[in-house]
Write a structure and sequence with these properties.
8-stranded mixed β-sheet; alpha+beta; about 475 residues; globular; binds arginine; 5-stranded mixed β-sheet; binds zinc ion
């Protein structure tokens, strides 16, 4: 689903239909290849041009002992131009591609582009059903020298940001093209599969010794937020106070972190309910969390409806901050997604500030205390201050500056506009871009409109200027 594009195309179609017969009719352009990327300023070849996906049906079989993965992904899409060929982002070995029932020819271009040439031309507006069959060993497939796919002692993790999708399903791999998902995975009996959304069915034994797990995401989801955890997990299913499905999963290999992990992730629903009062209604159909074996991932990720946490986050005891952070991303990142990866502050700055708000609400330290602490933590000559949170660069989009200076920026905004306006801005932001994509410039414009203040100096200083901002200098006191 690419909302803005669909709207523009519809307007164009109406305009063309209304063209008087006497007007000069331009000859129809010859079908052209869909672009190999969407022109992201950091990752120009991520995503593809010429079509818009509405649904992925991902059907897999996985052998934990050997990391063998076979699959069929069916993509429902709509052409947005006359297409002679189009690309999918995919790194595994493909055995066949069909487009609307016809065998298509296909070729790999570089490590993660699959070029598909349909047997018949595709017209703008046409519905496409693309069926890709594949078989490979994801841990052995490197793109730019690495794989995000993780093998564990008992299974595997398909999780990563921005790159993970091309190690397990072909896609239009950019947050601007969200879609719904059905994910079905056949694994040996006794192995569990956890993914996004809800379970439309309990696992079904479909072959002797093998069971298929079914997961469904009914709200639009960016491709990088689709995940899969395969292995030995305790799965806990519950219903939230608000009536939503809660599904949490804990690796059997958490060792001494097992209790602290449960003491944190079992509070997910409490966190989501609190965040709803601060950020607006929770955007998705289910909740939960997955705790993976210690040091398997090394980070946490805001996978839609069900964040993933490396077990090590709970090594000192409970850790509500990581739960608050990843669930805040459900609003900031998953529902309101970056229009371009350059805007990563819209995800990480906001999820980090949510931690300060939780601290304040819990009486563990105010946001102002955390601001003062963080400001002093990095001396003025620390390289930390040289990274611009509003444009950290393609090499290190997750630099600490995006998180910490990013949260400091929001605190400065809060001081400049006052609490009432600040929290109204947050709620208006999540409401007006729900299930969509947005830019930092749009956030600044909204904050200026709602506060009636010129905030250019504040945003320029805190997001786009290297060096530690002076506190109380005129440039930061935008009001
Ligand atoms: N978005 C994640 C977070 O919640 C960070 C992802 C970092 N990615 C990585 N491959 N280490 O902060
Ligand atoms: Zn984050």
């Amino acid at each position: 689903m690419r909302r803005a594009l669909v709207a523009v195309t519809t307007v164009l179609a109406v305009a063309l239909a209304g063209t008087p017969a006497s007007a000069t009719v331009r000859p129809r352009a010859a079908p052209a290849p869909g672009g190999p990327g969407v022109g992201d300023s950091y990752y120009p070849d991520y995503g593809n041009g010429g079509y818009d996906v509405s649904h992925y049906d991902v059907r897999l079989r996985y052998w934990p002992d050997t990391d063998k993965l076979t699959g069929t992904t069916t993509i429902l899409a709509r052409a947005t131009q006359d297409l002679s060929q189009f690309n999918l982002d995919f790194a595994l070995a493909v055995t066949s591609v069909r487009v609307n029932g016809w065998q298509a020819s296909f070729a790999r271009q570089g490590a993660h582009e699959l070029v598909v040439k349909p047997a018949r031309p595709v017209n703008a507006g046409q519905q496409l059903t693309v069926v890709v069959q594949y078989a490979d060993t994801p841990s052995a497939v490197k793109v730019n020298g690495f794989t995000s796919w993780v093998r564990t002692s008992d299974g595997a993790l398909a999780v990563g940001e921005p790159e993970i999708a091309w190690w397990w399903f072909p896609s239009n791999d950019h947050p601007t093209d969200k879609a719904t998902f059905d994910i079905a995975v056949l694994v040996p009996d006794g192995t569990q599969v956890v993914s996004n959304g809800v379970m439309p069915s309990q696992p079904v034994r479909e072959l002797s010794g093998w069971s298929r797990w079914y997961w469904r995401s009914t709200k639009p989801m960016a491709t990088y937020l689709a995940f899969m955890a395969i292995g030995q997990y305790e799965i806990r299913t519950d219903t939230s106070v608000s009536g939503q499905p809660v599904i949490n999963a804990y690796s059997d290999n958490l060792g001494e972190f097992a209790d602290a992990a449960r003491a944190s992730v079992e509070r997910t629903s409490e966190v989501v309910d609190w965040e709803s009062t601060v950020f607006g209604p929770y955007p998705f159909e289910a909740r939960g969390g997955v705790v993976t074996p210690p040091a398997s991932m090394g980070y946490a990720l805001e996978d839609q409806t069900r964040p993933m946490y490396d077990g090590r986050f709970f090594r000192r005891g409970s850790n509500m901050y990581v739960v608050v952070h990843e669930n805040a991303h459900q609003w900031f990142g998953d529902s309101v997604s970056v229009a371009d990866w350059r805007n990563i502050w819209l995800n990480e700055g906001f999820a980090s500030y949510a931690e300060w708000l939780w601290s304040e609400a819990q009486g563990e330290g105010t946001a102002q205390e955390l601001f003062d602490y963080t400001y002093a933590l990095y001396p003025p000559d620390d390289p930390f201050w040289q990274v611009k949170p509003g444009d950290p660069g393609a090499q290190d989009p997750f630099h600490a500056a995006v998180y910490d200076r990013g949260a400091m920026t929001l605190h400065q905004l809060r001081l400049a506009v006052g609490d009432d306006t600040f929290f109204s801005i947050l709620r208006e932001w999540t409401a007006s871009h729900r299930y969509g994509n947005a830019t930092i410039e749009q956030f600044q414009a909204l904050a200026e409109k709602m506060s009636g203040k010129d905030l250019d100096a504040l945003f320029t200083t805190w997001l786009f200027t290297p060096g530690r901002p002076n506190l109380g200098s005129p440039s930061t006191m935008a009001a």
